[in-house]
Design a protein that fits this description.
The protein is 83% helix and 0% strand. With 261 residues, the chain is mainly α. The protein has one domain.
């Protein structure tokens, strides 16, 4: 019965991801916690789940030539080392998962709140990015975007490894602001190309710590993969903006809960 429940949960999250495009981590990890899955298992399993489900998207974007690999490599240069270092810190400074559970839940809360804010103010951020584009590279952000890209990679490497949230939603907004000249499809493809290695390495970090449940992972994949494709097909017939706002408010509530408690 648990396997069936997790498969149905994977299908629900996959459907929502397909309709709204909101990252699975921000939905899947809180859902697993509500089911009583320990935080370290929820995060570790979700990271590998994310890497597997997003991999096919990278292949598709590569074929369409909608990935700016030079930008992806800048983000990877920051995120992969910081993800590995985060794992080493957890292993070296904490005796077992019980001692770093608080770090995981607090990080999850912070990332959920940040994700919710970005979803709610996405249009304003897009307008800001368009104004930046009109400055023809004279703004401080544009002048320092290479360094800022690597720095944001470092930040994402730490917090995605700790929470499994942010590789998609936050990464996309970072690219939108720093590279406003990119088309939307290029932003999605470039961010996805960064999210897969980051979540994979983060997942391996947790795998080395014993934080992955293979049965749970299989159930989530079984339910979500077909549901994502279904969601993309029916998404054009549903009020996406309304769904995004509702989900953003839900993520905000959950984020505050995990930050406070």
């Amino acid at each position: 019965m648990d396997f069936l429940l997790y498969a149905m949960s994977g299908a629900l999250v996959g459907l929502i991801v397909g309709i709204t495009g909101i990252g699975g981590g921000s939905l899947m990890t809180p859902l697993l916690l509500l089911f009583g899955i320990p935080p370290h298992i929820a995060v570790g399993t979700d990271l590998l789940y994310a890497a597997i489900t997003k991999a096919s998207g990278v292949v598709a974007h590569h074929r369409q030539k909608t990935i700016r690999w030079s930008i992806t490599l800048l983000m990877v240069a920051g995120s992969i080392p910081s993800a590995i270092i985060t794992g080493l810190v957890l292993s070296a400074f904490f005796e077992d998962y019980q001692h770093y559970t608080g770090v995981i839940t607090t990080s999850l809360g912070v990332m959920l709140v940040v994700t919710a804010i970005l979803l709610l103010f996405r249009k304003r951020l897009q307008l800001f990015a368009e104004k930046q584009a009109n400055l023809s590279g004279t703004s401080w952000l544009q002048s320092n975007r290479v360094a800022l890209t690597v720095i944001m990679g470092v930040v994402l490497g730490v917090f995605v490894t700790l929470s499994s949230v942010g590789a998609g939603a936050i990464g996309t907004v970072v690219l939108l602001i720093l590279y406003p000249y990119l088309r939307s499809i290029q932003i999605v493809g470039t961010d996805l190309a960064h999210a897969v290695p980051l979540t994979f390495i983060g997942g391996l970090v947790h795998l080395s710590l014993g934080n992955v449940d293979y049965s749970l992972l299989g159930a989530l994949l079984l339910g979500s993969i077909p549901a994502i494709h279904l969601g993309t097909k029916i998404g054009t017939h549903l009020p996406e903006s309304l769904l995004r706002n509702v989900l953003a408010l839900l993520l905000m509530i959950l984020g505050v809960k995990y930050m406070v408690f």
